[in-house]
Amino acid sequence: MADDIAEKLKETGQRVQDTEKGVKLLQQEEKAINGSADKAVEDSEEIFTELIRLLKKISSHVKQQIRSQQETEVSRVRELQERLEQEITELKRKDQELKQLSDTEDHNQFYTTTPHCHHSASGSVFSGTLRT
């Protein structure tokens, strides 16, 4: 019986040692899992920080291109508007000259006093051409 108790104590002691080794292995595994997770979180933060930086850079570039195109188009529209306003002014002036001509009884005097008008063989009254 003493041998049985001694055998049981030996078995129990061995089981305690094996279990303690298992606990130590699990603690090491937990530490490795935590370290790996911490590294993965750190890496993903670096990746997302870089992605955000690149997206901001791209966004800034796109905004700059849009504004540049806006300036080009606005300039084009303003130049066209200015040309059209000049054309309107010229057309109004020519219209006024035509009205004066129609109201003038002495057309020859009108031709000589109005600098933009001349009388040619073709019957053209104005030196410029009307644009439509």
UniProtKB/TrEMBL annotation:
Residues 16-116 form the TRIM8/14/16/25/29/45/65 coiled-coil region domain. InterPro entries: E3_ubiq-ligase_TRIM/RNF, TRIM8/14/16/25/29/45/65_CC. It comes from the Eukaryota. The keyword Zinc-finger applies. Keywords: Metal-binding, Zinc, Zinc-finger. The keyword Zinc applies. Residues 109-132 have a biased composition (Polar residues). Residues 93-108 have a biased composition (Basic and acidic residues). One of its GO terms (molecular function) is zinc ion binding. Pfam families: TRIM_CC. Residues 1-20, 93-132 are annotated as: Disordered. This is TRIM8/14/16/25/29/45/65 coiled-coil region domain-containing protein. The lineage of its organism: Eukaryota, Metazoa, Chordata, Craniata, Vertebrata.
